């Protein structure tokens, strides 16, 4: 039986960068039009500032009005959802975060949970977090410590339908371990040659995912959008031959 084509979404970590003029954004483009311009070229984006502070629901709703119905926002979970020591306060903060996130409606994609580099494997804490997340919200887990890269972690992710965040970074490598029907890949290098991008296309197409999110790093020189556009072309060309 032939497998259904994999849906690939590609974007960058953030979009509101004045430094991307004129490499990506036209020089005369107003700041308020950046998201509209970006969303005509990519179909997903990581929102990084939610890692530090969750915006108001009204701002999230305003973002959704600037994109098409198929666009997907990935919110990075506020850091204290995992790092806060008081379990009761952590639970309250988690519920508040996801209640606000609901304002995005169908435009809300996965939520990226980035674990602190100081946090060793603690499956009880991760399980408690999962229990507070609405069932219809997809979770991608970006681990900080190597102790998390273990079979019992993968088993918990599969149980929840959460995806292990695959990371390619000069200082951090996370193996490709499928734990959900969808994948999440962060390519954090500043420069990728065509052959390196093509190798990542191959790795991704080998996975059993139905959908995959691929994000490139923000750099002032706007290398992220450039690499993202190259990656989209390579992926489309390869996928059409399968």
From TrEMBL:
Name of the featured protein: DUF72 domain-containing protein
Top-level taxon: Bacteria
SUPFAM superfamilies the UniProt entry points to: TM1631-like
Pfam family, one: DUF72
Residues spanning the signal sequence: none
């Amino acid at each position: 039986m032939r497998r259904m084509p994999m849906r690939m979404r590609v974007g960058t970590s953030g979009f509101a960068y004045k430094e991307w003029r004129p490499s990506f954004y036209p020089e005369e483009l107003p700041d308020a039009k950046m998201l509209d311009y970006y969303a005509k070229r990519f179909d997903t984006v990581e929102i990084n500032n939610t890692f530090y502070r969750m915006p108001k629901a009204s701002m999230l709703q305003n973002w959704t009005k600037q994109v098409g119905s198929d666009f997907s926002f990935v919110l990075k979970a506020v850091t204290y959802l995992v790092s806060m020591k008081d379990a009761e306060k952590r639970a309250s903060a988690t519920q508040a975060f996801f209640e606000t996130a609901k304002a995005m409606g169908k435009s809300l994609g996965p939520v990226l949970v980035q674990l602190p580099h100081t946090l060793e494997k603690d499956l009880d804490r991760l399980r408690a977090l999962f229990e507070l997340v609405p069932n219809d919200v997809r979770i991608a887990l970006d681990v900080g410590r190597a102790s998390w890269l273990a079979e019992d972690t993968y088993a918990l992710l599969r149980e929840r339908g959460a995806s292990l965040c695959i990371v390619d970074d000069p200082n951090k490598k996370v193996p490709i371990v499928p734990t959900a029907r969808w994948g999440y890949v962060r390519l954090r290098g500043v420069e990728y040659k065509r052959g390196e991008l093509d190798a990542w296309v191959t790795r991704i197409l080998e996975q059993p995912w139905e959908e995959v999110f691929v994000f490139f790093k923000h750099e002032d020189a706007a290398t992220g959008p450039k690499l993202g556009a190259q990656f989209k072309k390579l992926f489309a060309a390869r996928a059409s031959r399968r």
